[in-house]
Specification:
Number of helices: 11
Strand order of the largest sheet: 5-6-7
Low-confidence stretches: 1-22
Oligomer: single chain
């Protein structure tokens, strides 16, 4: 029977959702079937007030709507265009080589991500092998099957609140690990190694009701950050974080979370994973440097060359581009009294 809201056959809709969620390499189409609003939220850029943009020349052969500076729109990546954006592992070797050469795009195997994430946790817990034991010979790991124990001076809530960030995150393999980004191999939920995976495991081990689980899952998401230049990678990362939320909720409660819960997580993700030039702290290519612009003077319209002080001086605080905004969750703006105040990313740097 067709769904009254979407007009999609309910059985077909359910099958598409299940396929997208169970297969970590199938993404946008499942989100569109799940909820157009969820996909629209994951495409949002809160700094520009528009959608994230492609920021890559890879898709320009598909038409002007896929140009480097064009926004990524739902209709460009769903339906007959559902396979346009693909994870790196599904791209051709030629595309992988070009992206590595043009954007220094190199993806890290899960065993390396795990080893480095383990170092972060070793420093936090004050001991090794908290979540798993590494097998350096076979490049695998053995998951700790026991409930995670915390130091006397720290609690599980402290761990969930601890801020973590993946810089130039690509598809966010350090944050979530539904699949190995270099092989495409799916990773069972009990063996996942991302920084957010670990937080959600801890939440699941220390909560009983769905209300408590959702509250602390939201805290976990509000304390995970990442930025990326290329729009396709950013969308893949955002989707991976959303599907991870669904995975862990289903594993805990045996059913899918409500749409309103998914929408709020998508909203958090759209703030916490953003599109940025990491060297400048601005929206990619938003600086005006060496650009000729026309302006009106007393003598009529004249051309002049605009220079960006930040680009000229390599000073991150002097760019004339659009500085990226993020949410400071839990803190109020002293001027506007707005909760979860907006701040510039660069204002966090010392």
């Amino acid at each position: 029977m067709p769904d009254k809201e979407t007009g999609v056959d309910a059985d077909s809709k359910s099958a598409s959702q299940e396929s997208a969620i169970s297969n970590p390499l199938q993404r946008e189409e499942g989100l569109q079937v799940l909820s157009a609003e969820v996909l629209a939220t994951l495409l949002r850029d809160h700094t520009t007030g528009r959608n994230i943009f492609w920021a890559t020349h890879d898709y320009e052969g598909l038409g002007s709507l896929y140009d480097y500076h064009s926004e990524i729109l739902p209709e460009l990546i769903t339906g007959e265009h559902g396979a346009v954006i693909r994870p790196r592992v599904l791209k051709s070797k030629g595309q992988q080589t070009d992206r590595a050469k043009d954007m220094a795009e190199v993806f890290t195997p899960s065993w390396v991500c795990n080893a480095q994430n383990n170092l972060v946790d070793e420093a936090w817990f004050g001991r090794k092998d908290v979540f798993n034991v590494e097998d350096d010979t076979n490049h695998t790991w053995q998951t700790n099957p026991n409930t995670i124990e915390f130091p006397k001076e720290k609690t599980w809530k402290d761990y969930v609140r601890a801020t973590r960030m993946e810089m130039t995150c690509g598809e966010a393999p350090y944050l979530v690990s539904r699949y190995d980004t270099t092989t495409g191999e799916q990773i069972p939920i009990q063996n996942r190694i991302g920084l957010l995976d670990r937080k959600l495991r801890v939440v699941s081990e220390n909560t009983e009701t769905s209300g408590d689980w959702l509250e602390w899952a939201q805290v976990a998401y509000k304390n995970i950050y990442g930025y990326e230049w290329q729009g396709d990678n950013l969308l893949l990362a955002r989707e991976a974080l959303l599907y991870t939320f669904i995975d862990y909720y289903e594993a805990k409660f045996g059913k899918r979370p409500l749409l309103k819960s998914m929408l709020y997580i998508a909203y958090i993700i759209s703030w916490n994973l953003w599109q940025m030039d990491g060297l400048k702290g601005v929206v990619p290519d938003s600086c005006r440097d060496g650009v000729t612009e026309k302006m009106m003077t007393l003598f009529g319209e004249e051309e002049h060359i605009v220079s960006c002080p930040g680009c000229q001086q390599e000073n991150i605080r002097k760019h004339n581009g659009l500085y990226c905004l993020i949410r400071d969750w839990g803190n109020k703006d002293p001027k506007t009294k707005e909760n979860n105040r907006k701040i510039r990313y660069i204002d966090l740097l010392k």
